[in-house]
Amino acid sequence: MFDLLTNKFENLFYKIRNKGKLSPGDLDDALREIKLALLEADVNFKVVKEFLENIKTRAIGEKILESLTAYQQVVKIVNEEITGMLGSTSSGVVFAPKGPTIIMTVGLQGTGKTSAVIKLANFLGSKFQKKVSIVAADIYRPAAVLQLEDMAKNIAVDVYSESNSDPISISVKGVELFKRSGSDVIIIDTAGRLQIDEKMMKEIVGIRSKVNPHQIFLVLDAMTGQEAVNIASTFNQKVECDGIILTKLDSDTRGGAALSVYHVVKKPIKFISSGERIEDFDIFYPDRIASRILGMGDILTLVEKAEKVVSEKEAKILEEKIYKNELNFEDFVGQLRSIKKMGSLDKIFSMLPIANKNRIFKKINLDDSYISRIEAIINSMTVEERRKPHIINGSRRKRIARGSGSSVSEVNKLLLQFSKTRQMMKQFSGQKGKFNLPAGNL
Amino acid sequence: MLRLIKNLNSIWNKFKNDQKSFWEELEEQMVASDISVNTTGKILAEVKKHVYSENINDIEKIKALLKEQIVEILKTNGGIDLKMSPASPTVFLIVGVNGTGKTTSVAKLASMFKGKGKKILISAADTYRSAAVEQIQHYAEKLDLDIVYHQKFSDPGAVVYDSLEKAKARGIDLVIIDTAGRMQTSYNLMEELKKIKKVIMKRIDREVDEILLVIDSTTGQNARNQAELFNDSLNLTGIILTKIDGTSRGGIVLTIKNDLGIPIKLFTDGEKLDNIHYFDPVEFTESIFS
């Protein structure tokens, strides 16, 4: 996400980077570019205006035009202002001091409330060891309850539903039931509604006053345009939201709505949801996203992901092997699997601090089946071949190709890539203390 | 939506005192309607050209010029009627990202064509989302339509194949295919759609009659990416703009039409099954200014 914004800043800063001192004209050009970039990223135009004013005031106040490091200072100011717009700190998860935490989600139709509820339930269950239950209060959309029940089954979470009843009494009864049965967290999934639909808005106001949720989350589609601010403001006026769950952050969403909503409504973005898998859900870290906008990548999240799938011990053994130049195909396939566990390739790629990602993205095809194809080739090797890759001669190559349903040239390509990787890793391992990514050259 | 530039009158006094800020505010209002900065620039450049070469200083005339430019972008040669094939069945393929309202649009389209006396079959090719089949089944029952569905996670291509076979056997006029929502950047899922298209073309031995992308009018600039990438994969024949009963302005369709030339064919504006209408560029533009 935020890719375009990142690219715009990269290009802009590339232009002014080598100039050292900035002229007032340069600053205006920079501001114009920033304005366009933010508008094209769906940041609300009023917020953009304010943002530009702030940057300009600071740039003049801090006398950066006279400085020799004007470029760095503009970057710093923009970075700080964007982080400020997104809320400076991550707000984390808040549980009720006593008894079960009741959470209600609200939002427009099609923003991904039901998926977000399931992902949140899974997140609180697996990360905080909470017993989570869900109340199905969407009686309008056909098969909505069925969808919730079906998805909840996969994560072993109980759902309360009722036919021929209204959402307010369903919520009251569901919450009572789960309170008695010892749930730690009870999430109420409400129907999608337009914020201007008085009757439907009354309904969530009613649920709120009867059930008194500890936390109310607005589920907001990251692709929302200029209207995001009004949508969030209205929901917030009616039910006083505690935070926002930002959905559909995968794909090429620029996500500027996130910037404006926090800034205008002053409610933090609590969680982000970014993919088809249940695990594609996380706490929102504003500073990380701001760095990403400025082309610095999201290394922190990447490191965390890597730590989740590779234990320290495994990493040590691997390091040893690399150092002795003993890396073999068994290690290689293990590395590939670790990467797979970290998420889809394009997502990992989007976190790397590489300039002009979009252009590269168009050229290389980050297809996850690529890893599967490599795995197939390695699986067709004998144990001996995997451990001692140098013995793989011509006829072995032919056999491996046949066995894995690939061509000899694909096998050759992999062998070549592997020997290059080995060399490169050997070089990296010489630089002790430097950050090592698993299979870092992919 | 449909109030793109309702505040034109309020900034009019600026035109006399400070023209630069008049144009800037007009630009802001257009961008605030989700029209892209580029499209806005293009429209305003044309309007300004006329204003200054013809010395126009009448708000109504400027409004007329703006309308003219917008209609110019939105209008299509050859009309927007959905194409019915002389050889039955006609096939509509409905695609889009998650949550835009594909399934509801399929039901509304079916209702619209049932009203015209067509025999319709719904192909439930969203085999991915939980309860997607049950949702579309609900509509099929309500409208008394034929429906073909398979088990969850089965191959959507097989559902489509099966649907077309049954449609031929039962003398169906129109097959409407509901597909799973997918991000336009998901390589594998876009390949799956290409495969579905191939299955259809092989069965009917011609191009798919309509391939319609469903776009949520609440969406901002990303809608353009959606249209571009879905079009790259499938060659879209048109767009269905949904949820325009909300407060968003859907201005992004201007950019989509301007940049990619994909016509907006239909829009939907409510929860009822008959809340679907053909898109009329002149009406749309008029309502922007009313």
Give an account of the 3D structure.
The complex is a heterodimer of chains A (442) and B (290). Chain A is of the alpha/beta class and 442 residues long. Chain A has three domains: 3-85, Up-down Bundle (Four Helix Bundle (Hemerythrin (Met), subunit A)); 101-293, 3-Layer(aba) Sandwich (Rossmann fold), CATH 3.40.50; 300-430, Signal recognition particle, SRP54 subunit, M-domain (434 Repressor (Amino-terminal Domain), Orthogonal Bundle), CATH 1.10.260.30. Helices cover 57% and strands 9% of the residues of chain A. Chain A contains 20 helices and eight strands. Chain A has helices spanning 3-17, 24-40, 45-61, 70-85, 113-128, 144-154, 167-180, 198-211, 228-239, 256-265, 286-293, 299-309, 312-323, 329-342, 345-351, 357-363, 369-379, 383-387, 394-404, 408-430, and strands at residues 101-106, 132-137, 158-160, 185-190, 215-221, 243-247, 269-273, 281-283. Chain A has an eight-stranded mixed beta sheet with strand order 3-2-4-1-5-6-7-8, sandwiched between helices. In chain A, β5, α9 (228-239) and β6 (243-247) form a beta-alpha-beta unit. In chain A, α9 (228-239) packs parallel to α10 and α12 (299-309) packs across α14. Chain A starts with a helix and ends in a 12-residue tail after the last helix. Residues 293-297, 353-363 and 430-442 of chain A have low confidence and may be disordered. Chain B has 290 residues and is of the alpha/beta class. Chain B has two domains: 9-74, Four Helix Bundle (Hemerythrin (Met), subunit A), CATH 1.20.120; 90-289, Rossmann fold, CATH 3.40.50.300. Chain B is built from eleven helices and eight strands. Chain B has helices spanning 12-17, 19-31, 37-53, 59-74, 102-114, 132-143, 156-170, 187-204, 222-234, 252-260, 281-289; strands at 90-95, 120-125, 146-148, 174-179, 210-216, 238-242, 264-268, 276-278. An eight-stranded mixed beta sheet of chain B has the order 3-2-4-1-5-6-7-8, with helices on both faces. In chain B, β7 and β8 (276-278) form a beta hairpin. The radius of gyration of chain B is 21 Å and the shape is elongated. Chain B starts with 11 loop residues before the first helix and ends with a helix. The model of chain B has no long low-confidence stretch (mean pLDDT 92). At the A-B interface, α2, α6 and α9 of A face α6 and α9 of B.
